[in-house]
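Dear colleague,

Thank you for sharing your sequence with our group. We've completed the structure prediction you requested, and as agreed, I am returning the results in plain text so they can be pasted directly into your records. Please verify that the sequence below matches your submission; if there's any discrepancy, let me know and we will rerun it promptly.
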Amino acid sequence: MAPYASDDSTTAGEVDEQRSGRRKAARYVVPVTVMGVAAATIGLVPALADSGDPDLPKITAQQLIEKIAKSDVQQLSGTVKISTDLGLPDLGGLESSLMSGAASPDGGGSSADPTAKLTELASGTHTLRVAADGPDKQKLSLLENAAEYSIVHNGKDVWAYDSKSNEVHHGTASESGKASESGKDQQPPATPKDFAEEALKAADDTTSVTVDGTAQVAGRDAYKLLIKPKQSGSTVGAITVAVDAKTGTPLKFTLTPASGGSAVVDAGFTQVSFAKPAASTFDFTPPKGAKVTEEKESGKASERGFDKGFDKGEARRHAPKSLPKSEKELGKGLDGMKTIGEGWNSIATFDTGGEGVPSGEAGGDLGGFVNSLGDKVTGKFGSGTVFSTRLVNALITDDGKVYVGLVTKDALVKAADAGK
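Please find the predicted structure tokens below.
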């Protein structure tokens, strides 16, 4: 992560690098947004719950970002609370069914597969326990009612265990220390550091970055870094990152929408220690009687990522005639994806290669249901449907073009008009 050149500007090289990261992130955001669960992969977050304003030495935004970049905390453990309020409609568990399809009997996967399980972080409030001891040892546990889901990375092994189903998913780690196809590089942001890194990737000359006082988080003194779009038209209001004054580690990440109200995402430590975790923390042996699925048995996890986390055959069998007839058609559209606009007003656009949202008799009950989740819009481009969350909006035109971004509905319509 490149350090900031000044409070509100970066060098040309840094801007190019950051925009490249933003475009890469958008490639993953687009498919899941259209499915109505977009924010699972967006690294952005609500207001900090301060428990005091410690008196700390003055620091500039540039110095604070450099402090984050230079932070080399290798060992920590703690509890993280994540709350997400995207304003998604109640789909009656439909989104969970779609995203966990890879773990269904038909999909041949496991309920312990991280690519399906951790999408639960996209909504509601969750408590995580995290621990790390260098690049080769990490553990993340999602605490549920009377159950626990854990991912343990120890050396070359990556284990994921779902106590509710008593299932285990076993994969391997890459040489870089990241879990390979089954794990860490496929996961959504889970810690304040994850969120902060994603937010700073988006920072360029369209962004205001300042230090907004101090706070105390999880009993530790911290500076507050405030990130705000300079442009109008973005759905992002502000991002606040609480940075540990001693270690430079992000302790809390908050994103509030431009529309006001509660935070879209709030992720922060409620307890943290930078002491070395016990070695036994990263030990894992499959419990007796547990079903163990090897990565090679369940297929490449990358093919069942967040944008493809459901059985393709099942999707084809139930797809309306007006949707693309093959993943190949949709793939061509994604390969041709381009970004228009800049900074926080960037809009990703691509052509699905087929017709847009099904309606009327052509779409049947599914078409009527999908249309009920969006708003019909018209313009020079023709007509289409806008699907909205409190953060991400997506316009799908009737001729199959998609426009998506952290922008308002009007901005999407304007972009579609300009594209004609």
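Summary note from our side: The CA atoms of residues 108 and 339 lie 36 Å apart.

Kind regards,
the structure core
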